[in-house]
Input
Amino acid sequence: MVSRWLKKLEPPHGYLVVGLLLATVSCLPLGVMAAGWLGGAEALLGVGLLATLVGFVAGLTPLPGWLVGLFGLLTGIEWGAATVGRLLPSAAAAGRELVRSALWLWKGLHGAWTADWPLVPLLADGWARAQALAGRLGAWLQAGLSGGASHDPLVLLLLAAIALWWPAYWAGWLVARRQSALLALAPAGTALVANCAFSHGAGVEWLRAFLGGSLLLMALVHLQHQQARWEREGIDYSTEIRQTTGLVGLGLASLLVVASLATPYLTWRKPVDLFWRYASGPYQEVTARLDRLFAARKPVAGRPPAGGYGQGHELTGPVELSRELVFYVATSDPPPPPEGEGQGGNTPQHYWRQVTYDSYTGRGWENGPIEEVGRQAGEPLASPPGPRTVLTQTFTLVRPALGLAPAANEPVSAGQPCGLVRRSPDDLVGLSLQADRYTVVSYLPSPTVEQLRRAGTDYPPGIAARYLALPAIPERVRELARALVAGAGTPYDKAVAVEAYLRALDYDLNMPAPPPGDDVADYLLFKARRGYCDYYATAMAVMLRAVGVPARYAAGFAMGQYDYARAAYAVTQRDGHAWTEVYFPGYGWVEFEPTPYRAAFARPPGGAAPLPTAAAAHVRGGWTASTLAGALGVLAGAGLALAGLFWWAARRLRAQRRAAPAQLARQTYARMLRAAQRVRLGPATGETALEFCERLGRALEARGEWAGGALGEARAIGRAYVRAAYAAVPPSPREAGQADAAWQRLRGKLRRLFWQRRPG
Output
């Protein structure tokens, strides 16, 4: 009996499709619950399931789409208010009232009617609940308009329930009415992605489950659509295809979920970082308003640092650097002369900096408090002081996910939207930029030796406080630093003296790691006496700070080898490097090279340094404002044209699917008639429709083998038309569908004949 009722109540799409649809849509409220930002989110699960079922049932009715949409809009508001707004009584209260009403009716039927009418207490309780809800909504609205704060969590939960109802209702309706799983699940999927992004990845497992369920549902719904078409056109197919499609869809869905787990950075981290690059500013404004309007909501965890710039850098033991290519960088400098064709002494030396650190820990480096500020393409990033040259760089990354973007010294503009990671407005940590190809303009300090010697020691308070600070270091490190700079009268001379001392030591990538508890600068200077760039850059920065010269640790890549075929420098992992930067008042951060393996920076002894020009600041290979606006205009026009094309195709397909069988048969015959007249094979005077179709088919087949089957196709169209025009019983949907399929094949033959006859 149960099986008979289940069979009777089975929807046209089957229980499997409905169950999978419910499970997929339920990932949205489950993702909100996992994110933890909404108190009482457990109530959303029932709202989503009910909305999906109501939308599915509405899709099975013949009601027009606008009426079904209006119904869903109103029911979402009403059901959210009734359940989340607590307008409905409790199950216990409703049960007691139903029992009392049954007893009242029983007594009345036996002649003992009373004045305590049934259900009146529930109505009175519902009215009181409605008044209470209206009061809470009014208080929340008044707080929002007056700039106050609201600590009532009910309003946010109510709005979330209504917002969840609509995409769930849409999903159920579109699957039932249009059999389009992709469009049906798109709003729910967008909401789930937004939930994961705003909660910094919380609930991502439900996003993966949603993607897998969506893929499987798309396969099953598409199969049902194809089966209906095959049956309408009289095409035989295997009944086992449904099982095969289900297994294939399940396999693809499982593969998608496993791939997302195996490659979390490619499938999740990069899109979220890109989202936050553009949304961090508006998000802060929105959350500020939310904190005021929904002060009782649960806070969302702060955004984790992107690209690893918030992590420390601890110095270790041996390292292995491969020759694997990392990126190409083309610059505005002239190419260096090939070996053996001149002196390369005038070739500029640049380092592609990724990150700087300010705090020495004794075992390595870390950064203090930092912030990321978004900048648009072409927007100024910084205004460094002093004489400088301009360098335009275009990077092409071969290995993405480098963390912060490489750029020379002080980037001042970028050809793409980016983020400034900084400690303060004039203290840059690095450049955050999500692109495999980007262009950056940098200002490079170009003071002479004499200018650096005259720079003095008038350091800004923030620079002195941050870049002279040291933890407790061995006293012999300080004594060695003081001994090295004993004869140096300026900070520049002190930096050169320390640099020269370190460059006299040995370079060794295989040095053993320092013992636990050892200061790494002390370990290099007094125990190992050899090392690689991380140790030399650290030791120089520590010793300069010990003698009152602000210095910091910088990391990135050396210049690389010039590739004349690409007109760019090829930078490999082996070019990964660290160096020291020293602060000079009026000139900013200037690079020094303490590592013996690399050449020291050459500076002119005196005289004026060149200043940047407007022409040199042009972003070669990047986007200007006019080209960007033009490109956006072209993209917008193409998008509108594509949207119009899809709208036209969707309307035509919808009209064909909704046409009655008789109307479809007439339309098909009319199309064939017009095409036949264009090739001078139209009906003769007094010729019936079937006679015309017979003559047309034979005439086409007489043209050659390419027209084979034309007679049968014309006959099918003619029979359907005659039944539609003259018979008491119109053609069945299957007959009309067969005629339409026959026309799809016959149309190509008529077109070929049209082009063959055209020259005559």
